[in-house]
Amino acid sequence: MQRIGVFVCWCGTNIAATVDIDTVVEAMKYEPGVVHASDYQYMCSEAGQSKIKQAIKEHNLTGIVVCACSPRMHETTFRKAAKAAGLNQYMVEIANIREHCAWIHKDRKEATEKAVVLARTAVAKLNLNTPLTPGESSVVKRALVIGGGIAGIQSALDIAEAGYEVDIVEKQPTIGGKMAQLDKTFPTLDCAACILTPKMVDAASHENINLYTYSEVDSVGGFVGNFNVKIRKKARSVKADICSGCGICTEKCPSRKAENEFNLGLNKRGAIYIPFAQAIPNVPVIDRDQCIKFKTGKCGLCAKVCPADAIDFSQQDEIVEKQYGAVVLATGFNPIKLDNFDEFGYSQSKDVITSLELERIMNAAGPTGGKLLRPSDNGHPHTMVFVQCVGSRDTTGCGKTYCSKICCMYTAKHAMLIREKYPDVDVHVFYIDVRTPGKNFDEFYRRAAEDYGVNYIKGMVGKVAPTNGKLLVQGSDLIADRQLVIEADMVVLATAIEPDQTAKSLATMLTASIDTNNFFTEAHPKLRPVESPTAGVFLSGVCQGPKDIPETVAQASAAAVKVIGLLSKDKLMCNPCVANSNELLCNGCSNCQHVCPYGAIDYVEKEFRAGGKTSLRRVAQVNEAICQGCGACTVVCPSGAMDLKGFTNQQIMAEVDAICR
Amino acid sequence: MTFDYYPGCTLKTKAKDLDIHARNAALALGIELEELPEWQCCGAVYPIARDEIATRLTSVRALASARDRGRELLTLCSACHHVIKRVNNDIQTDDEIRNKVNNYLAPDIEYNGETKVVHYLEMLRDTVGFDTIREKAVKPMTGKRIGAYYGCLLLRPNNVMAFDNPENPTIMEDFIRALGAEPVLYPYRNECCGGYVAMDDKNLAAQKCKNITSSALERDVDMLITACPLCMYNLDINTNTAEETKLPIYYFTELLAQVLDI
Questions:
Q1: Model confidence over B12-24: pLDDT tens digits?
Q2: Interface contact A348, partner B, CB < 8 A
Q3: Is there a contact between A465 and B218 if contact means CB atoms under 8 Å apart?
Q4: Are B75 and B84 in contact (CB under 8 A)?
Q5: What's the predicted TM-score (pTM) here?
């Protein structure tokens, strides 16, 4: 018989305001096995923990139930406390009466009843707990960074500097990401290329960093410390090791119909191309959908002019399989599509552009050589209107409910730069709120509005009507309480950002969770912001939520620190809650082997002696180092031979019984 | 298929063209429109105040009567459609309004928003099918450039009206294509004509209408179509008085009857 102690936490008023603590404590005193029940205001605090330790010793407890917050939050804390008092740490059960009870109920009576049920369920389970001892697993001293934008580059550089190998997988032909497309960066207005391209070079030349550009992650297996990853190196049709990057092929290519993605379709590129002059690696790639050779079999001009003989039309995708101890997700973002926002006339007029398109127009290496020209006729614009929150903070269902965070600042930047370079241009900015928290950010915005004469208008635009070669912008000025119509030459839409599409498939591969907007979820929103809930998977940059460059770099370095901490360990403690098979009951059906996502189950032939006879049977065996304790095998096992330590079928039935009692 | 048809007051007086051609065209397309017996005015303006019950009652009477007859309720006038559909939504989603209305009307069977409200255009699209119209077109309007004028009552609020994309609607353009003509997109096709503001501020309505017609004329339309008697009134008196904004405006049912050669 166990000797169980129950500890009910108030969590200040978080639990105590909704759950009657005394009732819970009193009810627990009469549960089977319980010899001690008490409560405290903050059980996780030093004082709370010592109360637990003291009670374990005083009452000679064999296990404890802590009725508190989610086990995600403090299970480790209470396990440590129990261990310090001499208990096996798996003799600790958490009844989550905060997230699962107090926070989601309003009625005190109902919530208290539910808290009692949750607590007695944990007691019922604990009565059947047995001490468990975790094993150990090795750590592969190499990290994988998925995404080669500023977030991925920074994480990789920091990990590499600490002496560990890092591979960056980037799906585009070059690293650099969105930052490479920007013109200037707020709030200091240094040019994006000047601060990014040296980092790109550092990453490429670092002895510990290996780049897989124009590559994608095909599959991920394994677990923390031992991820098995298949990387697909897409066929460039150019031998990267021979190519000198001279660029003759890109100049001579006769196909000029493809939209230049790097310039967001504002101009055309050849079928063989290098995205931009400072691309890394400086190796072209053939766009096979556009290439005349691939479409008709004729041409091959690039191969003829290549002085290094590097063009290879027969190149195939290549799969590289590698092991990693940790994975950093740095998959970034894209502006949303504007199909749902036809009122702004993006599809009706070339002169309605997105802010990222304006970045390219303003960029000295962009399609207009940095000159502010109206896309429809290359004329000089005299009046420009910026519309903020296009698709952000949207409650109609057409866009995103969240604030994209970067738009207020880059719009202020655009407006200021235009007013400085072209003082004759009138610039109007429509906004809902101007949000500029951040070091030197508000000062920056005020400079745009006060020193540079940008006309900020509080209100939204209802319609942009292309009329007689102009854009009639209809909006409201909420402060003056009047309707405005501005005759503009260009309209710039501060488009909401969303996570890159690859986030969703990667989340599935890595069993890393994503939220309703497809941003990766952090292990804890405040205290573990750069870790995914999946062990060994870390988050860097906008893939976790909208951020600007300084925040992205800070998070990238933070993720790197977490990776370094993990890779610096020689052994990792395994989860002892793994499956095990009762060989006497196993009928050899292989169901468990088929459903196991980790390949942890093998079948062996084994001799069994019963009733004086010896028979050879095929039975399941679990490799405990590989098993992650997901429990899928226990569900499909028809004979009940497969069981999960710490979550046995018996324990789960006891919990169900306790709930139904 | 037979619908209960709710014509509304305007269609009996100023907008007879909208009504009569709709009835004839429906007949030619195999749809029976049976006028709802003893219908009353919808109130013409949807009451924004949540505690305003009296002006919702006539719509509920029409809705309950269609429910009792086991029919869907077909509307044509944009204003009637707007009011009746929104009141139906109130009954479906607002307990307080539903209770008060039922307490007041005390119908034999409580009305809980069971009736489906269908606009004539939705009937053409979903029940008849635009392809059928194309097939039955005797005199297709080949070569005509027609601008659809939606106004606001059919489209907004989108979550209740669920008529079409409020910023980029297509149903009328699809209808125009079914007539054999060419739909012309122009930016102001879903802007308000001024509506009842015309009674209070003639100039404002005039300006709104001028924006609409000049934006359509800039794109070389031959004519505009509308489903709303109030839009028709505003557009007509405000733009067809001056030579430079003159533009023929028709109810969409007029063109439908013409194409079907009725």
A1: 999 999 999 999 9
A2: yes
A3: no
A4: yes
A5: 0.86
